[in-house]
Amino acid sequence: MSRSFRAETIKLVRRPASWLLLAITLALALIFTYLFPYASIAGGTDGPNNDRTLPMLLPDQLVGNSLGGLPVFLGSIVLILGVLTVGGEYGWATWKTVLTQGPSRLEVYAGKLLALTAAALAVVLAVFAVGAVASVLIAVAESQPVRWPGPGDLLVGIGAGWLIATMWAMLGAVLAVALRAVALPVGLGLVWMLAVQNLLAAIAAPLLDWVAQAQKGLPGPNAGSLVAALGAPGDTPGVAATVGGGQAAVVVAAYLIAFAVVGAVLLRRRDIG
Amino acid sequence: MNLPVQTEGLTKRYGGLTAVQDLHLTVRAGEVYGFLGPNGAGKTTTLRMLLGLVRPTAGTVRLLGRPPGAGRLTGVGALIEGPAFYPYLSGRDNLRVLARYAGVGADRVALVLDLVDLTDRAGDRYAGYSLGMKQRLGVAAALLKDPRLLILDEPTNGLDPAGMADMRTLIRRLGAGGCTVLVSSHLLGEVEQICDRVGVISRGRLIAEGTVAELRGTAGLRVLADPLDEAAARTRALVGDDRVRVVDGGLELAVAPERAAWLNAELVSAGLAVRELRPRERDLEQVFFDLIEKGTADVA
Q1: Which of residues 38-97 of A touch B (CB under 8 A)?
Q2: How buried is residue B177: exposed, middle or buried, by Cβ count under 10 Å (0-12/13-18/19+)?
Q3: Which of A39, A47, A160, A204 could form an SS bridge with A211, CB 3.0 to 4.6 Å?
Q4: At B244, phi and psi to the nearest 5?
Q5: B242 and B179 in one domain?
Q6: Are B184 and B72 within one domain?
Q7: What are the counts of helices (DSSP H) followed by strands (DSSP E) for chain B?
Q8: Residue B204: inside a domain, yes or no?
Q9: Where are its TM segments located (chain A) (predicted)?
Q10: What is the ipTM of this complex?
Q11: What would the pLDDT profile of A229-252 be if each residue is shown by its tens digit?
Q12: B182 shares its domain with B223
């Protein structure tokens, strides 16, 4: 499996789309978490869903600010990365090229999932790093003290972010295997994350109690609950304490494992076209 | 002795469509075996089943004596249904990635690139390769593991005439070097030139198997002599009624070509003017079409 992991890592690192997605992730995190709120505070403007104050942008809020995008927007990008990593083999018909070199399907798939797990960690670390730099710049610009979260809080935050990002990557992977393509899994994944989840939370759940209860078992609301428990701003889309942080972490981990297993079973059973 | 390729009762059905039916295929060590059939006959499906890409509905496959399972493709190289690589990587980097999966050293990459004459363009992105270059890279990938069994699906597709000739030379050289080669093709001339034995598949069934000479059947003689009627009567008297046919203004004789001199002397001594007398071999193309037609009729 280590051979497959190394091969998959090379492919992921050398693929321009991976870097583009990372750049978009960091740009979104920077713009929506720091730039727009700071511009609003500095300019004295106000708007809907904008109750952020200067202390919320400072380094001691790094964990919550870095995790806030993962339930929806940043998670969507990681999902796309998962689809590209697995679905690309269908799009380019390279499964046969890889598999005829001798590795088993599960070996290759495990290599892909490990590479995605490493990529998810890299994304989360990059978001934390960019957030750290941005928050320090704001603190310096506003003559505020630079205080960092404790190492334990940082580790827990990074771990939670890694867990959530990996779950979305696994969802992308399983969609790619199930649909044996790239475009459709990306489309369906984004519709689910950006539209369906929000519609359920904003429209259906307040009207129907069973939808509200069902939400507690869905991956998005649990990811949102987990980051909310770690201090993510409540005005961020997808961030809401629907369930407790501990339960949310367990549910997110369960989805991660389920997505990985279902993808592996499907890949193992089906013919490679 | 372990046969490089052995299938028993290999069958693949997609719903109501039977792509491959009860296929018993045997490829012997060191031979270049041609897998011949028209488009849609089941060649690629069979090769995919051999390599574990497609799961058989029934039957068994053994490659190099090994049943399906981990490590079954050790010593096996393959190019199936056209080359497929990562377009953002160069040809060399594509092979380096595949070498990781295969567990072979980077030195093999340079070697196989040289074998397929692609070293000069190995640093270019795969997306910019011509069809012929892609095909050669596909063969290079198949050779990465220094295979004892090489499975090539239409390896000359997309190659220009010089490239096709190079590919045939390479396959013959691999065969001469002890590598067993199973090559599928619908190009009869290609198969005729490089293969020791041939299997013909039609509508998912193996309808004939043997050397090219065996498939062609017994050779004979073609005679042009005047007057034709007298020549036919005399020849029938000499070799037997059932061995002589009048075809296109001449005689086709089912007799060994070695008897040409004797026959010529007999006809001349009988006062007949022999204008032409030459060995007659059945064209492989004719054999192929006859077999396909027969196979189709049998299935119907």
Answers
A1: 88, 92-97
A2: exposed
A3: A204
A4: -125, 130
A5: no
A6: yes
A7: 10, 14
A8: yes
A9: 68-92, 113-140, 160-179, 186-208, 248-267
A10: 0.90
A11: 999 988 888 888 889 999 999 999
A12: no
Residue B289: inside a domain: no
CA distance B94 to B88: 9
| Mean pLDDT rounded to a whole number for chain B | 88
Residues of A in contact with B150 (CB under 8 A): none
Task: Give the structural domain span for B224.
Answer: 218-281
Asked whether residue B138 falls in the same domain as residue B229, the answer is no
Q: Do A98 and B93 touch (CB under 8 A)?
A: no
Distances (CA, A) of B40 to A12, A242, B50, B185, B202: 36, 56, 17, 12, 8
Of A7, A16, A272, the CB nearest to B100: A7
Q: How far apart are CA A236 and CA A47, in angstroms?
A: 14
Per residue in B219-238, pLDDT (tens digit) is: 788 899 999 999 999 999 99
Helix (H, G, I), strand (E, B) or coil at B182: strand
Length of chain A, in residues: 273
A14 CA: distance to closest CA in chain B (Å): 7
- Tell me whether residues A95 and B74 touch, CB distance under 8 A: no
What angle (nearest 5°) sits at the alpha carbon of residue B199, between those of residues B197 and B203?
170
> What tokens does A65 get?
């600010």
DSSP string, A54-84: GGGGSGGGHHHHHHTTTTTHHHHHHHHHHHH
Q: Among A193-197, B132-136, B282-286, where is mean pLDDT lowest? A: B282-286
Token pair in block for residue B148: 């004892």
Count of C-beta atoms within a 10 Å radius of residue A40 = 14
Distance in angstroms (rounded) separating the CA atoms of residues B69 and B51: 11
Contact A103 B83 (CB under 8 A): no
In the 8-state DSSP scheme, what is residue B186?
A: S
- Give the model confidence (pLDDT) of A26-36 as tens digits: 999 999 999 98
Q: Which residue in chain A is spatially nearest to B83 when comparing CA positions?
A: A97
Contact A271 B55 (CB under 8 A): yes
| Tokens encoding B242 | 């059932």
Q: Which of B215, B245, B266 is the last residue of a domain?
A: B215
Q: Tokens in use for B32?
A: 């270049």
Residues present in chain B in total: 300
Same domain, B60 and B177: yes
